[in-house]
Write a structure and sequence with these properties.
- The protein has 196 residues and is mainly alpha-helical.
- Among the domains are: 73 residues; 62 residues, Orthogonal Bundle (Cytochrome Bc1 Complex, Chain D, domain 2), CATH 1.10.760.
- Helices cover 65% and strands 0% of the residues.
- Helix 1 packs across helix 4.
- The radius of gyration is 30 Å and the shape is rod-shaped.
Length: 196
């Protein structure tokens, strides 16, 4: 009788151990799966916080932020450097907003999202510029002005009509345009047709 109870007790002990180990095994698998899902969920949450930070901190100065993001394709490190540059220029960005901003900007306008340049109708290349000065000025606009402005805004005639003052002000804001390129831009923009 005693031996039968011992056998039954041992049986239930083994069953209990197997159940505990099986439960622990499945919990470990579930935890591993959750860890694999967490980075994606965390990234989406970071991007959502970055979207909100862009609306609060970037849009007041960069009204055309959508165009800026369409024009600029940068790596995450380059976007982080841009955020720090904006902080240096006086942007009110909190330390805890830097990584969310970087994540949003990289996700929205990252290098991997860069698309091929648009072609003309039926796949033909776009028409060549009218003059060598216009071609050179367009190249300068593409390299320097499109970093912050769309071309329509960058080539809109200022109310004062003084392009030299406008370009000098942009250089004081950090545009890296040489004196020779400034003169070419002024010469081109003074004769370019006025945008509506």
């Amino acid at each position: 009788m005693q031996r039968g109870r011992t056998t039954i007790g041992a049986f239930w002990l083994v069953v209990s151990i197997v159940l505990v180990w099986t439960s622990a095994f499945y919990q470990a698998i579930g935890a591993a799966a959750a860890r694999q899902r967490a980075p994606q969920a965390d990234r989406q949450e970071l991007i959502a916080k970055g979207r909100q930070a862009v609306a609060q901190t970037c849009v007041p100065c960069h009204v055309g932020i959508v165009q800026i993001l369409q024009l600029h394709k940068k790596s995450a490190n380059e976007w982080r450097n841009t955020v720090y540059s904006m902080i240096g220029r006086g942007a009110h960005i909190l330390p805890e907003e830097i990584e969310p901003l970087t994540a949003f900007l990289a996700a929205t306008a990252g290098v991997e999202r860069q698309s091929a340049p648009a072609a003309g109708p039926a796949g033909s290349p776009a028409a060549p510029p009218a003059s060598p000065l216009a071609a050179e000025a367009k190249s300068i606009l593409d390299r320097h002005c499109r970093r912050c402005h769309d071309l329509e805004l960058a080539t809109r005639k200022p109310a004062s009509g003084d392009w030299n003052t406008v370009i000098t002000r942009m250089v004081s804001y950090g545009a890296d345009i040489s004196s020779a390129d400034q003169q070419k831009l002024v010469a081109h923009l003074n004769v370019a047709p006025k945008q509506p």
